[in-house]
Description:
The protein is mainly alpha-helical and about 400 residues long. It has 15 helices and 8 strands. It has 3 domains: about 80 residues, no CATH class; about 80 residues, Orthogonal Bundle (DNA polymerase, domain 1); about 180 residues, Intergrase catalytic core (hpI Integrase, Chain A, Orthogonal Bundle). It is about 55% helix and about 10% strand. α3 packs antiparallel against α4 and α3 crosses α6. The longest helix has 27 residues.
Amino acid sequence: MPKHGTNIRKRTDGRWEGRYKVFQDDNSCKYRSVYGKTCSEVKEKLQMKLKEQEGINRQIQSVSEIKTGGTANAVTDVCREEAAVINRESMQDFTSVSVKWLESIKETRKYSTYIKYRGLYERHIKDRIGNTAIRDISYSLVNERIFRQNDKIQYSQNLKHSILAVINQILKYAAENYGCPKIQLTNKPGHIGGKRAEIMNHTEQALLLRYLHQEMDASKAGILLCIYTGLRLGEICSLKWSDIDFEQMIIHVRRTVQRVAIDGDCSRTTLLITEPKSAFSVREIPISRGTVQILHKIRHEEEYVVGGKAPLEPRTYQNRFKRYLKDIAIREYNFHALRHTFATNCIDHDMDVKSLSEILGHANIQITLNKYVHPTMDTKRRQLAILDSVYGQFCGNYG
């Protein structure tokens, strides 16, 4: 319910929301919202927005005073249109819109999402296309100024995709709020590039599994769990014993952990526990009896499976994993290679893609197929060998 005498209410997600009117070009009104953790915070934001609106109204009034002829309503309509034009023209460059877009993201999205988007914008976008007019933004310009000119950064396909996603969100925000032209950037063939995700071969997997089973502790068991279930690094670091149902043999994925910058101080970071990557990442994963036995073997009284009293720092676990690989003379892999290896093993052993997609926590099977299914050479050889029998039948029938 709204707070008495105001247009402020507390939402079901715990945040406070305040609504205010914005006049449109057609003389109609549209409601916008501001958000905050407390009612007083929303009141302050609402007052700022109302002052902005008062400024526009004063601009309308001052222009109307010098207008002559026509009815009062007609003059007001013309003035409001001119003020709207002035407001739109002041928001036609990419930097101005980006600042407003980031403010809206901070108010409406998870803190970790805001930090991620702000980091991408400030590191890769701001200094390279920030002063460009919205109407001049194109893929060729982004490709030339960002992806080709920065020799210090190796732009992987995932990083390019993330940068383009941020730019597209800013462009969409500009079109919806400031009357800018609708522009959608798309990766073009030949410009995508990027390094193919790596998976561990069968020999490397065998060496790693044997090593992890020797003198097993919680750290080694956590890596085994990732190999057996495809859990993400942040998900395993934040996994609690209370998330594991030993009777039903199910793991409940309920949170993730990541290190993010502290807002307003780029030099300092904090370890942040949040909800998983997306709504689809909140999931249940069935585990085998063998996996249950491994977990029973290393079970302890502290809250977190791998970290103990607190969630483990993902970077620490990443380094620990690489040290294990070095101990058994396996080339260095990123921790995420375990997830790709798990997905490839599932497909190689005929798991249906829909089941795999849900286990991995993907929104749809296309993500699974495009990013996590990498047929091995043995799989390709086995599939092609089927043709031998087919061609043999042809020879038998017509020889």
